[in-house]
Amino acid sequence: MNFVPRVVAFCCNWCAYAGADLAGVSRCQYTPETRIIRVMCSSRVDPAMVLRCFELGADGVMVLGCHIGDCHYLKGNEEAEKRMERTREIMELLGIDERRLLLRWISASEGERFAQTADMFVSTLKELGPLKEEQNED
Questions:
Q1: N or C: which end of the chain has fewer CB within 10 A?
Q2: pLDDT score of 44 more than 90
Q3: Among 24-28, 38-42, 87-91, which stretch is predicted with the lowest mean pLDDT?
Q4: What is the secondary structure of 1-57 as a DSSP string?
Q5: 3-state secondary structure at position 136
């Protein structure tokens, strides 16, 4: 089976989105399965948004923000950590493997890190298989 996972990446405007942009400008090769949604802060991504992505067919969701201590809004990334932890709890209740949600910190100067993170996450999703198959097993 040639499974191509669908990945949604919520990227903080100030760091991770700029990192993704740098990856593109630097011509870093990374997997094309990732669809980027720019948000002003990683803390703006709430559990309902992540779950809606899964409902609409995403196999994995990445939430990428500023490194701790570098948040434009001071503690937004710390709030994102709390929200994603709650999201993982809900995912467990729904029978969704928590590895389908990734929270990482990527600065504007880390284009290579963005590319590596996207590749690593898609590799993990390929090992897990399609989300719909996972849910049919339960």
A1: N
A2: yes
A3: 24-28
A4: ------EEEEEETTTHHHHHHHHHHTT----TTEEEEEES-GGG--HHHHHHHHHTT
A5: helix
Total-model pTM: 0.91
Residue recorded with tokens 């669809």: 35
Residues 21-42 have a mean pLDDT of 92
137 CA to centre of own chain:
24
Cβ-contact 125, 59 below 8 angstroms: yes
What is the SS3 assignment for 63? strand
- Which residues sit opposite 60 in a β-bridge? 7
Checking if the pLDDT of 37 tops 90, the result is yes
How many Cα neighbours within 13 Å face the side chain of 68? Answer: 7
The answer to whether 114 and 17 are in contact (CB under 8 A) is no
> Six-digit token pair at 120?
């690593």
pLDDT score of 48 more than 70: yes
d(CA 44, CA 15): 14
Residue 47 tokens read as 């559990």
